[in-house]
Design brief:
It contains two helices and 13 strands, in the order αβββββββββββββα. It has about 220 residues and is α+β, with helices and mostly antiparallel strands. Strands 2, 4, 6, 7, 8, 10, 11 and 13 form an eight-stranded mixed β-sheet that branches. A five-stranded mixed β-sheet has the order 5-9-3-1-12, with no helix packed on it.
């Protein structure tokens, strides 16, 4: 995937605005740590060719004692050929979005998805509301992106990968990389039975049912 600046750059405006927020705020970012993880949820799923699916990219604080002030997320995701990306939104299922007031919703900023192909996307956002970061406490998880996709009709049975890739990062209020680990997921492509196989299986089941029914009717009465 193409290289990109550390902050999600759509125009010079977002960089200027982000710098202004930093200058106007009290700095106190947590040190870089592997306590943060960009994860794929669900981590695995099974789908047939032609089926539609979805997953969330979430940011989880796995540290038992440290909180992180997350002011910006810059996200790069890729999927294996055989999967085709569709919609990418901030509407993560069952989880609150990481930022209370996303900067991409402000006039002159956005969109959330900066670049997208059939198998890759780049998205980014920042907290616009004071104090210009979202505190992620120990054990807390917040949604970053909801990703919808389809399985190609000609996808062969097997396991296809989903990856959060560099230079993805969570950025602290002091413009420091918080050291988030990059997670992976997978989609198992399951074969769809051929019509002839389905028909044969149906016939076999029907014959078995008839056989059992006949056997029940012929069962001699007790005492005969």
């Amino acid at each position: 995937m193409p290289s990109t600046p550390r902050l999600p750059q759509r125009s010079a405006g977002i960089a200027v605005a982000f710098s202004a927020l930093v200058v106007a705020s009290i700095l106190g970012a947590a040190p870089a740590s592997a306590g943060l993880v960009f994860a794929i949820e669900p981590a695995s799923s099974s789908l047939a060719p032609g089926a539609a699916g979805a997953f969330d990219v979430v940011l989880t604080n796995t540290d038992a004692s440290t909180s992180f002030d997350v002011s910006t997320v810059d996200l790069f995701v890729e999927v294996d050929a055989g999967l085709t990306l569709a919609g990418i939104t901030m509407s993560t299922a069952g989880l609150g979005y990481i930022f209370a007031d996303p900067i991409v919703n402000q006039p002159g900023f956005g969109p959330f998805v900066i670049d997208q192909t059939a198998t890759t996307f780049h998205a980014g956002d920042s907290e616009f509301a004071a104090p210009f970061f979202r505190l992620l406490g120990p054990g807390e998880t917040r949604g970053v992106a909801r990703v919808e996709f389809t399985v190609d009709l000609d996808a062969a049975p097997g396991v296809l990968g989903i990856r959060v890739v560099p230079p993805s990062m969570a950025v602290g209020l002091a413009s420091n990389d918080l050291g988030a680990a990059l997670g992976t997921g997978s989609v198992e492509i399951v074969a769809v039975p051929e019509p002839a196989t389905i028909s044969a299986a149906g016939t076999a089941l029907a014959c078995l049912a008839i056989s059992r029914k006949v056997g029940t009717r012929r069962k001699p009465l007790s005492g005969e």
